[in-house]
Specification:
The protein is α+β, with helices and mostly antiparallel strands. It is 27% helix and 30% strand. It has six helices and eight strands; from the N terminus they run αβαββααβββαβαβ. An eight-stranded mixed beta sheet has the order 1-8-2-7-6-5-4-3, covered by helices on one side. The two termini are 37 Å apart.
Length: 215
């Protein structure tokens, strides 16, 4: 097929491992579909071990639910509107999270959503990504803080975000999750589980961390 690479996956993976080793990272994680047997074999041969398993779910954008209303006392904001306050993801991702997001080519401030309580505190956040080439919209990450859960904030965030993705031009919507609570949210909004993926990781040994050693 024109435009499709004929380079074997084993060759691509070998180059990837070389790049990983050159970076000298303490740990590397790779998310792989459980039915991708060729890549799974390559991971095993490179010393990667299985960690957590996630479900991958999809939805046609035209099947998205109506945007759910927020309860009284809460407001939906995005980083295109609110640029002076701290980013709501900073507590878990560090103070430099917004600068790092800005370096991503697909990052869109208007798809970086949060719910604020009446006192201005971030009650939850969700980040949505749109790829105009594949016309796929992705939900990741998403969280409602413990003190604000079970108030409908997650569904309001999710439905607002996928609606914005659809208006950007997304035809398909994708999300990954690993808990029963998340499954209830996403499946309840119309996502359908299509596959499972497992995270594989490799950590450097103590010996490999010494000067002059190799991974």
């Amino acid at each position: 097929m024109p435009g499709v690479s004929n380079v074997p996956l084993s060759t691509v993976w070998a180059r990837a491992v070389e790049a990983i080793n050159a970076l000298g990272l303490e740990a590397v994680e790779v998310l792989v579909r459980d039915d991708d047997f060729e890549l799974l074999a390559l991971l095993a041969g490179s010393g990667f071990v299985a960690d957590d398993t996630d479900l991958i779910a999809w939805m046609d954008a035209q099947d998205r639910p109506d945007v759910a209303a927020l309860p009284d006392g809460f407001a939906l904001v995005d980083r295109a509107q609110e640029t002076t306050g701290p980013h709501p993801m900073r507590r878990r991702s560090g103070e430099g999270v917004e600068a790092r997001l800005g370096q991503c080519s697909l990052y869109d401030r208007a798809l970086d959503l949060a719910v604020e309580a009446a006192d201005g505190q971030a009650a939850g956040y969700a980040l949505f990504w749109f790829d105009p080439v594949t016309e796929v919209g992705l939900v990741e990450p998403m969280r409602v803080e413990d003190a604000y859960q079970r108030r409908g904030l997650a569904r309001a965030l999710l439905t607002a975000g996928v609606d914005r993705l659809a208006r950007r031009g997304a035809r398909r919507l994708k999300v990954g999750f690993g808990t029963d609570v998340a499954r209830g949210l996403y499946v309840g909004a119309g996502f359908r589980v299509a596959s499972t993926c497992t995270s594989y990781s490799r950590r450097r040994s103590r010996a490999s961390c010494r000067p002059g050693s190799e991974v």
